Hints:
By secondary structure, the protein is of the alpha+beta class. The protein has eight helices and twelve strands. Strands 1, 2, 3, 4, 5, 6, 9, 10, 11 and 12 form a ten-stranded mixed beta sheet that branches. It has a two-stranded antiparallel ribbon with strand order 7-8. One of its GO terms (molecular function) is pseudouridine synthase activity.
Amino acid sequence: MALGFAGNRGKGAAMILHAIADFHVLGESDDWIVVNKPAPLIVHPANGKVEPNLLGGVETLLMYEMENGAALSIITRLDRETSGVVLIAKHRDAARDLSRIFERREARKEYLAIVHGWPKFDTWTSDAPILRAGEVGPSPIWLRQMVHPEGRECETGFWVERRFLREGREFALVRCFPKTGRMHQIRVHLAHSGYPIVGDKLYSGDGAEYMEWMRDDWTPALQERLLLRRHALHAAMLGIPWGGREVAWEAGLAADLAEFMAG
């Protein structure tokens, strides 16, 4: 994979960064840096596990700024398996101001998802409330969310960009417009609409694929059922008001998802 950098940081920085994480820089200012994160790169360290992560990679890229007081804060977190645009504040004041933009729902976000089936309509909206499954009953998967009348307010708009066939099976590329920022809301709303995301271990069914993956790792049986090793979700665009104007960044569909669509 290639690396993209903002500014001339030299071959030494590139070599160090490549050993930590692989990503492309989409834009940078004194207040923030925006990158295109590949899957399955994790955003930040978790559970004490030592592995390449986006935060560590950006800290290495910005080593000069870090030595001079920068304090990075990831504003738009993506799941390990979700690729695309990530916004990172460089200092505490920027983190506060950016967080308020998202709290006021002034940011524009667009995702691309490859789903099973051909949606009946070209556009639709899901406002089904969601909550963690474990809040209403026993659940072996702590992260799994579900639609429930007692759930939190949640809204996502959908627009079908393309319907296509792959080995005789129906799939669609759907652009997703989340109005709220609940955990897994796009994945839950698409599954609830009857069009689960390809490769989604948690929401393609009842979560059995996730449990099987955790127990046995990736297997030919999972490959046959899920088709992709990761869920086909990509953060394609992010726009925010900043400095009296809107700034926006786009990341083209990840290569593995484009390859799936090409058959």
